[in-house]
């Protein structure tokens, strides 16, 4: 019998049962035709052997084996190699199982190793991500510290600038306020003395006859309109002048109407204007400031106040010895007073002159027409023509050869 064509034990058992039935058929068709008890026992024995071919019976009696028929011997001889082949098949199958087991274990070990490798790679990736995040956080922290340092530097710089501004403006303003206070006291005393002197003069009023006797003099009708800022009768104008100076200094109007001061007015410049109005009576020279632009600002404040008091009657006659100075004065007055080029000219609000003779001709004509000329002189030398001093209002800038007296805020 060939066992190679069978796949498992069930096929082998089925084949053996078929062969056992054939043997029994041969025994049952015995030609004797007799059913002896001995033959029945043989059938039972063969049937049991066919049913259990793989079990060995060590307790079988040797006499029974000796009395077996030839058919029974043949069946027994066939059962012996069947058992051996079944055992070899089982051994082979066991070996296959062992091989499968080993391959499965190898696969399991391979999977475990791959799992460990993946875990190790995941840990490495986690560590790398952690390092990247840590480096990023460190970089952001450095940037934050650098920004904080930069902000602190800017804040310190801002504080330093504010301190410099306070020291340069508020400190100087405070110092000038102290000086102006002294000037105020001095000015009040001087005004009181002038008032007392004016009251004494009023006791014997001057006769207007000499003025009326001159038929050709045009000053007879202009004299009452001449400003007298230190006289008792002009206290209202004095208050207006002080109020305007305070306004220019504390509340500058950079977009005001034409002929009104549009620039920041410092206490030192206010001191020069107050000196010209109240100490000099609108006729005299004031100490020059450090630059021509500051002198222009002082003159612009005076012009603005006069325009507020007398309106279009005021005519500015500017005398300078070079065209460059005249151009600088024209630009400065335009900027400080908000006027245009159309306001400059012989018959306009501001007239520019390089010679004294031309100015005198224009000034005399304005006085004859009942205008109020203001002569401003910006000359290189200290000499002034005496003919210019006959006008009711004139301003000159003299070099500051002496130290200014302590002055403060005037009221």
Description:
With about 400 residues, the protein is of the alpha/beta class. The protein has 11 helices and 5 strands, in the order ααααααααβαβαβαββ. The protein has helices spanning about 10-30, 35-50, 60-65, 70-200, 210-215, 220, 235-250, 265-280, 290-310, 325-335, 355-370, and strands spanning about 285, 315-320, 350-355, 370-380, 395-400. The longest helix has about 130 residues, at about 70-200.
Count of helix runs: 11
Look at the structure and give the CATH class of the domain at 227-398: Alpha Beta
Strand tally: 5
The CATH homologous superfamily of the domain at 227-398 is termed P-loop containing nucleotide triphosphate hydrolases
* Poorly predicted spans: 21-68, 202-224, 403-411
Helix amount, in percent?
55-70%
Structural class assignment: alpha/beta
Strand content: 5-15%
Mean pLDDT: 74
Side by side, the strands of the main sheet go: 1-5-4-2-3
Computed Rg: 68 Å
Q: In whole angstroms, how far apart are the ends?
A: 144 Å
Largest sheet: 5 strands, parallel
User: Secondary-structure element sequence?
Assistant: HHHHHHHHEHEHEHEE
Sum up the overall morphology in one term. Answer: rod-shaped
CATH level-3 fold name of the domain at 227-398 = Rossmann fold
CATH 2nd-level architecture of the domain at 227-398: 3-Layer(aba) Sandwich
């Amino acid at each position: 019998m060939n066992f190679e064509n069978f796949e498992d034990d069930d096929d082998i058992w089925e084949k053996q049962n078929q062969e056992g039935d054939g043997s029994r058929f041969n025994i049952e068709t015995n030609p004797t035709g007799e059913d002896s008890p001995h033959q029945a026992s043989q059938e039972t024995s063969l049937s049991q052997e066919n049913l259990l071919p793989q079990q060995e019976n060590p307790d079988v009696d040797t006499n029974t084996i000796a009395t077996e028929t030839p058919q029974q011997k043949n069946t027994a001889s066939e059962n012996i190699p069947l058992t051996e082949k079944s055992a070899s098949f089982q051994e082979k199958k066991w070996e296959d199982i062992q091989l499968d087991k080993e391959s499965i274990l190898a696969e399991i070990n391979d999977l475990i190793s791959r799992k460990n490798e993946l875990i190790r790679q995941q840990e490495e990736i986690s560590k790398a991500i952690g390092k990247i995040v840590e480096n990023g956080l460190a970089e952001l922290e450095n940037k934050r510290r650098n920004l904080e340092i930069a902000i602190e530097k800017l804040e310190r710089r801002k504080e330093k600038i504010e301190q410099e501004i306070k020291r340069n403006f508020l400190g100087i303003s405070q110092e000038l306020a102290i000086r102006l206070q002294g000037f105020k006291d001095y000015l009040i005393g001087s005004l009181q003395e002038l008032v007392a002197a004016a009251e004494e003069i009023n006791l014997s009023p001057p006769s207007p006859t000499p003025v009326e006797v001159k038929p050709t003099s045009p000053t007879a009708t202009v004299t009452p309109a001449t400003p007298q800022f230190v006289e008792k009768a002009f206290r209202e104008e004095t208050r207006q002048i002080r109020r305007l100076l305070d306004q220019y200094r504390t509340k500058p109007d950079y977009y005001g109407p034409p002929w009104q001061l549009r620039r920041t007015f410092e206490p030192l410049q206010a001191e020069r204007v107050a000196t010209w109005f109240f100490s000099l009576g609108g006729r005299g020279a004031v100490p020059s400031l450090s630059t021509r632009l500051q002198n222009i600002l002082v003159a612009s404040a005076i012009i603005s106040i006069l325009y507020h008091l007398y309106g279009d009657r005021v005519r500015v006659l500017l005398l300078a010895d070079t065209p460059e100075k005249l151009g600088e004065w024209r630009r400065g007055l335009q900027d400080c007073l908000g006027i245009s080029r159309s306001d400059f000219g012989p018959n306009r609000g501001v007239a520019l002159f390089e010679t004294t003779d031309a100015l005198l001709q224009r000034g005399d004509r304005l006085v004859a027409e009942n205008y109020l000329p203001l002569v401003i002189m910006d000359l290189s030398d200290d000499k002034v023509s005496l003919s210019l001093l006959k006008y009711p209002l004139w301003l000159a800038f003299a070099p500051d050869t002496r130290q200014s007296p302590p002055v403060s805020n005037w009221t």
